[in-house]
């Protein structure tokens, strides 16, 4: 087992969030609507307690206070995103108020020794782009590259770490194979095209980054779930390979290795699901990232289907999910907790992906009705979160000891944030936000615990 408790020098200790989940001010200072704003206006009952993106922790006005809280906790890095619809409200015209806000926000972090890690897209499609077809329109590749260029030019002197996307698989799956994201389409062929355009937009943004002569680093953030098979039986192993191919390799191989998995291409061809390629496909695919962000929450457990589907309607036509009897659950959110998954991902990146530099860009524990854990002093006694983080960090340390190139750990999230259709149902933060009391921020027990870990750069167990 592990022999060291010490994290590497300059290890990133931080937290992650996104613009649409924290900023609020959704129609202030020239910002145009996103799909979330429009959806909430049309159908508020789709959102938990009808709370929409206009009611977040109001970072747009309170970022200075929040950056001080980061500093109080010893954080040395922080990830958030830029809202495309705020920076370019019509896709073309730069919004100077947005530029001033983001510059000051990022500079405030830098002044306090906190590395800003800035992501370009976290599920928040501008409505003007949605009206042009959103991810289905190949023109989005150019629109996105232009947005990226503006962001790099306006903030590149302050921001040295960029991500093109957060969890692109989520806007593909939830928007085009389900109904949790707009436009709530259910069509595998369209989902594949959307995924393809997303990949091309990623490459185009990386290309622009190199072209503008930046001196920082660029990567992307993927949600990677290790896929475990029920058994060693060949049919379960095959189910595992298919699930891994669609959920992991479909994006990770092109992004990290600049190749497309040939088994995936073959099956898409066989089922007439190949996307229409854009002209620049071959040369764009050569663009390389500098680092990878990995969001890890829970694994995927699969088994062979009883009857193999004759048509490929969605990836899960090729496997069934499997309920592992030894599964440990987060009783407050309903997701599996499997700490070793973080180690398995680390080893996979080391062995199959050239040990590219990477960091945990999200990991965390959502808790519904977390107010039940507030004690008489007003502090959430989130010992379950401390245990969760400690156990994941312990496996992460073991992987680092075995040569993994992991350079940081960001918790989802810093201050409880608004989360899409779930709004404030599940709380994840080191800080609690009080929606009834002027959005007051109160540290949870975990924030004090982590502050000490960061100070020593060492895990106490
Ligand atoms: C992550 C996303 O996967 O899950 C976040 O990147 C999201 O944007 C988080 O808020 C938590 O999701 P939920 O559904 O538990 O609120």
From TrEMBL:
Keywords from the UniProt entry: Hydrolase
Superkingdom of origin organism: Bacteria
Pfam families linked to this entry: Glyco_hydro_1
Recorded GO MF terms: hydrolase activity
Family: Belongs to the glycosyl hydrolase 1 family.
Protein's UniProt name: Glycoside hydrolase family 1 protein
Source organism of this protein record: Fundicoccus culcitae
Lineage, uppermost ranks: Bacteria, Bacillati, Bacillota, Bacilli, Lactobacillales
């Amino acid at each position: 087992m592990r022999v060291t408790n010490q994290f590497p020098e300059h290890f990133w200790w931080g937290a992650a969030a996104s613009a649409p989940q924290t900023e609020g001010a959704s129609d202030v200072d020239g910002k145009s609507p996103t799909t979330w704003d429009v959806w909430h206006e049309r159908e508020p009952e789709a959102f938990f307690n009808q709370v929409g993106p206009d009611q977040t922790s109001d970072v747009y006005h309170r970022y200075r206070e929040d950056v001080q809280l980061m500093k109080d906790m010893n954080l040395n890095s922080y990830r958030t995103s830029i809202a495309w619809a705020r920076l370019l409200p019509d896709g073309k015209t730069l919004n100077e108020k947005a530029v001033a806000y983001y510059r000051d926000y990022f500079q405030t972090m830098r002044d306090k020794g906190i590395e800003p890690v800035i992501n370009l897209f976290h599920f928040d499609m501008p409505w003007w782009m949605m009206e042009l077809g959103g991810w289905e329109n190949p023109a989005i590749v150019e629109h996105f590259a232009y947005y990226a260029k503006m962001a790099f030019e306006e903030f590149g002197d302050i921001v040295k770490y960029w991500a093109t996307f957060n969890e692109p698989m989520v806007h593909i799956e939830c928007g085009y194979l389900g109904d949790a994201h707009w436009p709530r389409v259910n069509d595998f062929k369209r989902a594949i095209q959307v995924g393809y355009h997303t990949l091309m937009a990623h490459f185009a943004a990386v290309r622009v980054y190199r072209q503008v002569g930046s001196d920082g680093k660029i990567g992307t953030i993927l949600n990677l779930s290790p896929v475990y098979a029920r058994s060693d039986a060949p049919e379960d192993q095959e189910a595992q390979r298919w699930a891994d191919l669609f959920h992991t390799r479909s994006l990770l191989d092109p992004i990290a290795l600049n190749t497309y998995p040939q088994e995936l291409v073959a099956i898409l061809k066989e089922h007439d699901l190949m996307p229409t390629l854009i002209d620049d496909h071959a040369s764009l695919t050569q663009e390389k990232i500098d680092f990878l962000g990995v969001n890890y929450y829970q694994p995927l457990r699969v088994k062979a289907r009883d009857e193999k589907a004759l048509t490929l309607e969605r990836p899960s036509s090729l496997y069934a999910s499997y309920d592992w009897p030894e599964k440990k659950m987060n009783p407050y959110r309903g997701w599996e907790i499997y700490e070793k998954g973080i180690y398995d991902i680390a080893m996979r990146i080391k062995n199959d992906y050239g040990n590219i530099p990477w960091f945990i860009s999200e990991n965390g524990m959502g808790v519904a009705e977390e107010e039940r854990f507030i004690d008489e002093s007003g502090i959430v006694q989130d010992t379950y979160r401390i245990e969760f983080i400690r156990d994941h960090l312990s496996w992460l340390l073991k992987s680092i000891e075995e040569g993994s190139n992991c350079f940081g750990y960001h918790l989802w999230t810093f201050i409880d944030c608004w989360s899409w259709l779930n709004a404030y149902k599940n709380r994840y933060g080191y800080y609690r936000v009080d929606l009834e009391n002027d959005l007051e921020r109160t540290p949870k027990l975990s924030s004090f615990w982590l502050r000490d870990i960061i100070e020593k750069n060492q895990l106490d167990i």
